[in-house]
Write a structure and sequence with these properties.
Elements (H helix, E strand, L loop, with lengths): L7 H4 E6 L2 E6 L10 H15 L6 E6 L10 H6 L3 H20 L4 E5 L2 E3 L1 H8 L2 E5 L3 E3 L10 H8 L4 H10 L3 E2 H7 L4 E3 L4 H13 L3 H14 L4 H16 L2 H11 L10
Parallel strand pairs: 2-3, 3-4, 4-6, 5-7, 6-9
Antiparallel strand pairs: 1-2, 7-8
Helix pairs in contact: 2-4, 4-5, 5-6, 10-11
Length: 265
């Protein structure tokens, strides 16, 4: 298990505000590259949040002019063994999967550039709010290192030919294009980015935490299934969901025309 050390806060700044936790990438001079230490710090905080019942939404943000430039190329170049490279890419996959499997929804708040594994980070989040000036790219092909792991998240968010165009050309796309393709869920004015993202996080945090947890897990499991299997699975999830206290409260509140009182259970 990854342990927190004295350097963790140098890489990730965490701020909890009510039911919302904000994790900010904090290596602006390195363009918030996903070095091994950056990924360790982020995985640590996500693991801690997964055990925090009072946190119901997570915002992933960044300091500096760049959201995330992907892998730290100097770090990649400094190691030569196949085993070391494999460990680094496995750590990146662990990070992306931790976002997907986190009980709480994760919202990326993107300004500036999100490239390569930084674009993968955006694609791995449940929602993504982008500044209208943000840009996205998977430019590995330009340096002889195809964005193969970013491709996994990217191809599960946008249509195949859009994904292949990004991967084969390395050309950046605008926030508007990213929204049209489905890579981001919202595009807002740069001055409104922080407030709009926080408002969205609060809207989700107001829902039943147990219901959102059930729904997020079910969404990612069913999407990989054949249609008939997905319906069978989703029906079993709804059956289980119906037995929860919050489902009983929510349906009762709707019928009685009152606001529900969630216990998040």
């Amino acid at each position: 298990m990854i342990q927190k050390d004295e350097n963790t806060e140098k890489y990730i700044v965490r701020e909890d505000s009510g039911a919302v936790s904000i994790l900010t990438l904090n290596q602006s001079r390195q363009r918030n590259a996903l070095s091994s230490k950056m990924m360790s710090a982020l995985i640590f905080e996500l693991n801690d949040i997964s055990e925090s019942p009072n946190i119901r939404t997570v915002i992933l943000a960044a300091n500096g002019p760049v959201f995330c430039a992907g892998h730290d190329l100097k770090e990649l170049k400094s190691i030569s063994s196949c085993e070391a490279h494999a460990a680094l890419f496995a750590q990146c996959s662990e990070l992306m999967m931790r976002i997907v499997t986190l009980p709480q929804p994760v919202i990326a708040r993107i300004h500036g550039m999100a490239t390569a594994a930084g674009c993968q980070l955006v694609a791995s989040c449940d929602l993504a709010v982008a500044s209208e000036t943000a840009k996205f790219a998977t430019p590995g092909v330009n340096i002889g290192l195809f964005c193969s792991t970013p491709m996994v998240a990217l191809s599960r968010n946008i249509a195949r030919k859009h994904a292949m165009r990004m991967l084969l050309t390395g050309d950046p796309i605008s926030a508007e294009q990213a929204w049209q393709m489905g890579l981001v869920s919202d595009v807002v004015a740069e001055d409104d980015l922080e407030s709009a993202t926080h408002a969205l996080a609060l809207r989700i945090a107001e829902k039943s935490g147990s219901t959102v947890k059930i729904g997020k897990e079910a969404f990612y499991r069913q999407i990989e299934m054949p249609l008939a299997d997905a319906y069978d699975y989703a029906a079993s999830v709804m059956t289980t969901n119906m037995q929860t206290r919050d489902a009983d409260e929510g349906i009762g509140a709707f019928i009685e025309k009152r606001h529900p009182t969630w216990r998040h259970e």
